[in-house]
Amino acid sequence: MTGYFIAFEGGDASGKTTQARRISELIGAIFTREPGGTDAGESLRELLLDAKTPLAFRTEALLMAASRAQLVEEIIRPNLEQGLHVVSDRFLASSIVYQGFATGLPVNEVRGLSVFATNGLLPDLTILIDVPVAESMRRRTDTPDRFESETVEFHEKVRQGYLTLAENTSDEWAVIDGSGSLKHVSEAIDEAIRDRLGLSIGSTGS
Ligand code: TYD
Fold it and tell me: pLDDT digit string (tens) for 32-42?
């Protein structure tokens, strides 16, 4: 029996990293993140997030895909095959939305590149934490990286891109309103995981 693969998605400062870590602990999953998660991936991440290094959009898409390919090969697939669950903070949908919908590369080509990278592996459940852009901008504190330095318009495209994907793909998605309290958001996520995957999740204590 293989484990479940759950991806968390959302705009910057949507709270998905906190939630992905929390769920990962609750279900005893392997936690990972993108871009990154492997030695090669973390090197690519530094380059990808460095706002001072110019990157053409296609280069950006290829490096995101390269990081993903390594993560699937080295971490995600072997753990799933051993029966462990894997939780990833971002996965393939991030590329479709950021490099496709928001920067304007052809969405189907970006998807094709990503599916090549994962050799067809897709999440069993993608949890989208949806937060209005104005709210996520308010939540930011640290020095902005390449993507956080983008305009409000870019982040609006990211948000709409995610909502469009969640509605139109046949993959399993759960859209969670991320603008409520931490407790509220946590409960909605727990419920989605219970309902969609049948995993038993106790009280979160959050
Ligand atoms: P990170 O610091 O992990 O941001 P967050 O906490 O919001 O997840 O930075 C990851 C950034 O990389 C984020 O702004 C989205 C972007 N990204 C893409 O543009 N394409 C991708 O395929 C992935 C995985 C991330």
Answer: 999 999 999 99
Domain, as residue range, for 154: 5-197
Residue nearest to atom 14 of ligand 1 (CA): 147
Which pLDDT value is given to residue 141? 78
Q: 6: phi > 0 → left, psi -120 to 50 → alpha, else beta; which?
A: beta
Q: Are 101 and 164 in contact (CB under 8 A)?
A: yes
Q: Is 94 near ligand 1, meaning CB less than 6 Å away?
A: yes
If one residue of 9, 12, 95, 118 were mutated to test the ligand 1 pocket, choosing by the most ligand atoms within 8 A of its CB, it would be: 12
Regarding the beta carbon of 64 and ligand 1, being less than 6 Å apart is answered yes
> Model confidence over 72-112: pLDDT tens digits?
999 999 999 999 999 999 999 999 999 999 999 999 999 99
| CB of residue 150 inside a 6 A radius of ligand 1 | no
Nearest to 76 by CA among 57, 91, 61: 91
Relative to beta strand 5-10, strand 86-89 is parallel
The response to whether residue 35 sits with its C-beta less than 6 Å from ligand 1 reads yes
Question: Does residue 204 belong to any structural domain of this protein?
Answer: no
Question: What is the model's pTM?
Answer: 0.95
CATH number of the domain to which 89 belongs: 3.40.50.300
Total domains, the chain: 1
